Amino acid sequence: MKKNYDVIIIGAGPAGYVAAIRCAQLGLTTACIDKWLDDNKHPKLGGTCLNVGCIPSKALLESSEIYQQSGHSLAQHGIHIDSVSLDLKQMMDRKDNVVNTLTFGIESLFKSNKIDWIQGSATIEHSSQTKTDDLYNQTISVQLHNKKTSRFKSKNIIIATGSSPVNIPIAPVDNKYIVDSTGALAFDEVPKKLGIIGSGVIGLELGSVWQRLGAEVEIFEAQDTFLAFADEFIAKESLKLYLNQGLNIRLNTRLIKAEVIDDSVTIKFTDPQGEQTKVFDKLIVAVGRRPNSNGIFADETELVMDEGGLIHVNDKCETSLPGVYAIGDTVRGPMLAHKGSEEGLMVAELIAGNHRMVNYDLIPSVIYTHPELAWVGKTEQTLKANGIDYKVGTFPFAASGRAQAVNQTSGLVKIISDKKTDKILGVHILGSQASELIAQAVIAMEFGASSEDIALTMFAHPTFSEAFHEASLAVSGSALHITQRKTKK
Ligand code: FAD
Ligand code: NAI
């Protein structure tokens, strides 16, 4: 292993490992330090996303959806299965195999790109405020998994240390009864009664998994608005669907205390009816994530951060220290894997002397429930608040031939465009293919498309994408498969 590098990346999640691959592709000598150990104490690449985040959650969402469909929905297709049974261990093993396949994949990409993988916990010892003659002026000490300490020098450092679940003292996580998202991906039996604190993305996705597998799920949300960051109309429509599915989402509910008593979790909370008590077999705490930025520097005062631990960066992800960049969940913006990866690509190019930027206005969001929620750009409420005039076109999947054929008719596509220029400002989709459909909205918006541009584009029939086409026609009142009051002359 070398001691001096052009770039050292701390963290091998989707922000860090992507940055490492691109740096190496660009001919920079690259090392990536990561401290992740799995349950068997094996070092693993991929960070939160691959090990305990995006990938295992989507594996369980898929398995649980198939299980639920086998038990309930197939009869509509004329398919009767006499008995459906759950082998949770096999379901978990499949999830673990998916994770292992992907993490080993990154390992081999690191090898083929000649990226040194340093296994241990990194601390930045010295970060020169002024450039010296020594180009390798950044020093990182690593507490290796074998307990030895090694020092490495680099011209550039990329901090990509990710985030961890927020812990609240009134609900102390023991990962047996009161669990965080990691614990909730690894229950060894389906809880009969499952409580969840927080109706954000994790609460909804993992709540869906366990509800489909048979748990009675109750979700306690402090805010009185459901999914406040999503388009209000879409959020309201999705809430109706979730409640219908049996996810008992209770808004405006404040947790007072959660404690483990006699192999179960008793929670005290207040809601508009007053103080109440409930007992659950397990409780998931999903109230947000916090950047892993504490302790990265031997001398913490050097780096400018905000109170929540977010590292301050400019639009090039440069920190307050020369040659030190920060990306992914450690910096402002949504905590999403693809946002971190794009920042990793940008920083790699900048270090190599090239140009690249991230379009922070067009970061797609997806919630992988059934149906899925996906959106990009502005919501109607933000446009209203900013006094921007807009037009809206919507199209329900119930009017789509393909959606009817595959029996996935819930939800709609909503396109918002500028009233004067018709430029698309936001696209919001609630529907079974929303995670895939949103990509065409992102592409259209990257190219500055108007709703008319989409309306004049040909879409294959029958497809879910036709709902995107019809919603664009609906912006001008000329959707074909729904009745609209206003028709374009
Ligand atoms: P991370 O993936 O957190 O990786 C950081 C890495 O840094 C870790 O490997 C850690 O070991 C390492 N590290 C930290 N400190 C040090 C140190 N001092 N020395 C060495 N190594 C260190 N996002 C999506 O876009 N789509 C999804 O579907 C999605 N699903 C999710 C589901 C769940 C249950 C969770 C919890 C998250 C999900 N996310 C999803 C969010 C996504 O996982 C994160 O946004 C993403 O992982 C952030 O990437 P990152 O590279 O910044 O950090
Ligand atoms: P979140 O920020 O999405 O939701 C947390 C929810 O908890 C909020 O609605 C908040 O109002 C509520 N809350 C906070 N304190 C509370 C309290 N004391 N009592 C009751 N409710 C309380 O955070 P979550 O779900 O933990 O997810 C963390 C992040 O992980 C997400 O913001 C997202 O960036 C990422 N993620 C992304 C996924 C995706 O892209 N599909 C999937 C899962 C996670």
End-to-end Cα distance, whole Å, is: 70 Å
Per CATH, the superfamily of the largest domain is FAD/NAD(P)-binding domain
Radius of gyration, Cα only, in angstroms? 24 Å
CATH class descriptor of the largest domain: Alpha Beta
What is the overall pLDDT average? 95
| Bound molecule types | flavin-adenine dinucleotide, 1,4-dihydronicotinamide adenine dinucleotide
Beta fraction = 25-35%
Number of strands: 21
Q: Structurally, how many domains make up the residues?
A: 3
Going by CATH, the architecture of the largest domain would be 3-Layer(bba) Sandwich
Q: Which segments are poorly predicted (pLDDT under 50) over 5 or more consecutive residues?
A: none
Number of helices: 13
Biggest β-sheet: strands ordered side by side in the sheet: 1-2-3-4-5
Helical content class: 25-40%
Outline the structure in words.
The chain has 13 helices and 21 strands. It has 489 residues and is α/β, with parallel strands linked by helices. The protein has three domains: 232 residues, FAD/NAD(P)-binding domain (3-Layer(bba) Sandwich), CATH 3.50.50; 121 residues, FAD/NAD(P)-binding domain (3-Layer(bba) Sandwich), CATH 3.50.50.60; 105 residues, Enolase-like, domain 1 (2-Layer Sandwich), CATH 3.30.390. The strands form five sheets. Strands 1-2-3-4-5 form a five-stranded mixed β-barrel. A hairpin with a 2-residue loop joins β11 and β12. α1 packs parallel to α8, α3 runs antiparallel to α4 and α3 packs parallel to α6. The chain is globular, with a radius of gyration of 24 Å. The N and C termini lie far apart (70 Å). Bound molecules: flavin-adenine dinucleotide and 1,4-dihydronicotinamide adenine dinucleotide. 1,4-dihydronicotinamide adenine dinucleotide binds next to α6 and β17. The site of flavin-adenine dinucleotide has 35 residues, from α1, β2, α2, α3 and β3.
